[in-house]
Design brief:
With about 300 residues, this protein is α+β, with helices and mostly antiparallel strands. The protein has nine helices and 14 strands. Strands 7-8-14-10-11 form a five-stranded antiparallel β-sheet, with no helix packed on it. A hairpin with a 7-residue loop joins strand 2 (about 120-125) and strand 3.
Length: about 300
């Protein structure tokens, strides 16, 4: 059986399917544009690489958090953002380049690219061998908005998002009305919110405001596991602008923490540990039983 399986398996998985570590690393050489971007010490931002096939190339993702990259499995809402916003905005940038291939022509079109700015596309690579474009119109990791609009359906969210300025206002579905209803925000122009620590499963922000504020975060809303805390106390998280996270930030100075703790994972780990313990105790019980039985028979 071993000989048969070995020879058959070698047809599908053999030495030709493996590369050395050196060969692997050579695929991901740092380009001048990458080196320039990596000097930025901001804990979190995204890169749009127009020098590759944006949604079918993973090389940029080796060094940066990107707008594109490839994944066979993605949230439907993010795919909707790609179809309705990101692809048209990439086309807009391409048209600007064709009409006038200068830095000023690209920068002139950046304020209109709502989705890219919402997703904090801080750098745009046009030529990998040249310095990237620093998108000074990107909204950053989080921002406070002046007001919001409640809508009924996901379609309404998309339509309204096309009509508003996301830097100034937020679109919120009525499913979150109980959290935000009767809220009238006194927008504080001097309020601040800053990302101070980033990890894939934990983010920390510092906030300061004289009044309660409505904050939008440039992070994808995913309620199945993500929790938010204000100074260590649980708070409420909801969705804004079709795909992003939002919350009400209390007045004063606070530390906001996002932490990914999916209940299903921790519950599964507990069940697994209990099951393993039961099996181990049962095994030990059997061993003790047969030892006692053996000595009883011997005597």
């Amino acid at each position: 059986i071993l000989a048969d399986m070995w020879t058959v398996d070698k047809r599908y998985l053999n030495a030709d399917h493996f590369v050395t570590q050196r060969e692997f690393n050579s695929q991901y050489k740092l380009r001048p544009a990458d080196n320039a971007i990596l000097t930025d010490k901001d804990p979190n931002y995204r890169v749009l690489d127009l020098s590759v096939d944006v949604f079918n190339d993973s090389h940029t993702s080796y060094f940066h958090k990107t707008i594109g990259g490839y994944s066979a499995a993605k949230l439907q809402r993010y795919q909707d953002m790609i179809d309705y916003f990101i692809i048209p905005e990439i086309q807009n940038l391409g048209n600007a380049l064709k009409q006038s291939p200068t830095l000023s022509s690209i920068e002139g079109s950046l304020p209109q690219q709502k989705a890219l700015n919402m997703l904090n596309a801080k750098y745009i690579i046009i030529d990998p061998n040249s310095a990237p474009i620093n998108n000074r119109f990107a909204y950053g990791n989080a921002w406070f908005v002046k007001d919001y609009e409640l809508v009924d359906t996901p379609d309404d969210e998309i339509i309204t998002l096309k009509q508003i300025d996301p830097k100034e206002s937020a679109v919120i579905n009525k499913e979150f009305q109980s959290i935000i209803q009767d809220k009238g925000f006194n927008f504080d122009e001097n309020a601040s919110i800053q990302l101070t620590s980033y990890a894939p499963n934990k983010l920390e922000y510092k906030t300061s405001a004289t009044d309660e504020q409505l904050a939008v975060f440039s992070e994808v809303y995913y309620p199945k596991g993500w929790n938010v805390y204000v100074d260590g106390q649980p708070s409420e998280l909801f969705r804004a602008d079709y795909i992003l996270r939002a919350m009400i930030v209390p007045a004063g100075e606070h530390v906001i923490t996002f932490e990914y703790k999916p209940q299903s994972y921790f519950m599964g780990a507990k069940i697994s540990a209990i099951s393993s313990s039961i099996l181990l105790l049962a095994l030990l019980g059997c061993i003790v039983f047969y030892i006692i039985r053996y000595y009883k028979k011997k005597n």
